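Technical note accompanying the year-one report. For the benefit of new consortium partners, we illustrate the data format agreed upon in the data management plan: each record pairs a sequence with a structure-token string. No post-processing was applied to the example shown here.
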Amino acid sequence: VSLTGERLKLIIILFPSKELVYKEEYLKAFPDFGEKYIRNEEEGYKRITAFAEKEGLLIYDLTDGLRKARDEAVLFFNEDPHLNERGNVVVANLLAGKFKEWENKGITIK
């Protein structure tokens, strides 16, 4: 496959940690170091977002969408920080919705 002459658009997707999605619960469980951990992740997201916007890159942060969905279903495995099947379905739906939104604005997603 040759990409010569193709116009490619970088899309940055911010996948939050389990701790960031369940921020309030995490801070209650780990008051000694949880705040610094969360603050570091949030600050990193702010920097990446500012850079992407400055450079005209597409960026989408899944944090709010996952936080909204967490009350309806368990999104992560209990034993590790990875999304479970339901969490992956939520992410797929969030991404599909965002891609459709971008396409409605005339941004082609291939």
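Partners are asked to follow this layout when depositing records. The beta strands are 11-14, 58-61.
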